[in-house]
């Protein structure tokens, strides 16, 4: 639940950019809330603030009833295990020096779900890769060896492997060509039915948002103007 969320940026000496200004919404388990709006209306900033990547200027982000802005270091780590983000740009969000297997498995290592070198971890990574439409033999390849659509799938696999309760998908299909978009969106729907994950789906493409979302919110200049089915 997001209550009266505000995120302001200082621009110049005495100008403030109100990127997100008093936004309220709820997302329920297994539901997809689509957020649409023109470029620069605050969609990405809203997603990143909900995720805790930006510190909110005001308001609350309640996850299972707890405000994420008041968590200590250990609680924050637990929150990142249960909430994941798929970034907009598949080129800049993957570390070029890590193999795909290392990128997807990084969260598992960070949260001590598997020990280093555990053969079960590689099997699990390959299983998630195949779910996301990536061949398991890609596991030792580097991001530069993939197309944009395949990189975006790596980003999706990285988010899904933690089995989160909430995924913030920040324009995760805008960099893909149309045939791949449909595959990725169908994949996300299938995974949602399997796991009951909730999505905050940020996008420009109204037809895609209509297809995937249960409810849609319209953002304009930092304000959520309306929400509806």
Describe the structure.
This protein has 229 residues and is an alpha/beta fold. 35% of the residues lie in helices and 26% in strands. The chain is built from seven helices and ten strands. The strands form two sheets. Strands 6-7-8-3-9-10 form a six-stranded mixed beta sheet, sandwiched between helices. Strands 2-1-4-5 form a four-stranded antiparallel beta sheet, covered by helices on one side. Strand 7, helix 6 (178-195) and strand 8 (198-202) form a beta-alpha-beta unit. The longest helix is centred in the last third of the chain and has 18 residues, at 178-195. The two termini are 17 Å apart. The relative contact order is 0.20. The mean pLDDT is 89.
What is the strand content? 25-35%
**Secondary-structure content class:** alpha/beta
Note poorly predicted spans. none
Write the element-wise H/E pattern from the N-terminal end onward. Answer: EEEHEEHEHHHEHEHEE
Mean pLDDT across every amino acid position: 89
Radius of gyration, taken over Cα atoms and rounded to an integer in Å: 18 Å
Number of discrete helical segments: 7
Helix content range: 25-40%
Q: What does the secondary structure layout of this molecule look like, with pairings?
A:
Blueprint: E1 2-11, E2 15-25, E3 32-36, H1 43-51, E4 58-63, E5 66-67, H2 73-82, E6 83-86, H3 100-110, H4 119-131, H5 148-160, E7 166-170, H6 178-195, E8 198-202, H7 206-212, E9 215-220, E10 223-228
Helix pairs in contact: 3-4, 3-5, 4-5
């Amino acid at each position: 639940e997001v209550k009266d969320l505000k995120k302001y940026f200082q621009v110049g000496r005495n100008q403030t950019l109100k990127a997100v200004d008093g936004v309220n919404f709820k997302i329920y388990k297994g539901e997809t809330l689509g957020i649409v709006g023109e470029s620069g209306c605050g969609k990405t900033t809203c997603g990143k603030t909900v995720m805790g990547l930006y510190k909110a200027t005001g308001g609350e982000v309640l996850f299972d009833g707890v405000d994420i802005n008041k968590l200590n270091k250990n609680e924050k780590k637990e929150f990142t295990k249960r909430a994941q983000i798929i970034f907009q740009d598949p080129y800049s969000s993957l570390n070029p020096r890590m193999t795909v297997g290392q990128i997807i498995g990084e969260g598992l290592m960070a949260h001590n779900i598997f020990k280093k070198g555990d053969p079960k971890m590689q099997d699990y990574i390959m299983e998630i890769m195949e779910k996301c439409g990536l061949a398991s033999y890609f596991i030792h390849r580097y991001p530069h060896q993939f197309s944009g659509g395949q990189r975006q799938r790596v980003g999706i696999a990285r988010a899904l492997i933690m089995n989160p309760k909430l995924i913030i998908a920040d324009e995760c299909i805008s960099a893909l060509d149309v045939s791949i978009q449909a595959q990725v969106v169908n994949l996300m729907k299938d995974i949602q039915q399997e796991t009951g994950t909730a999505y905050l789906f940020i996008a420009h493409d109204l037809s895609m948002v209509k297809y995937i979302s249960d409810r849609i919110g319209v953002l304009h200049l930092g304000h959520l103007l309306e929400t509806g089915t």
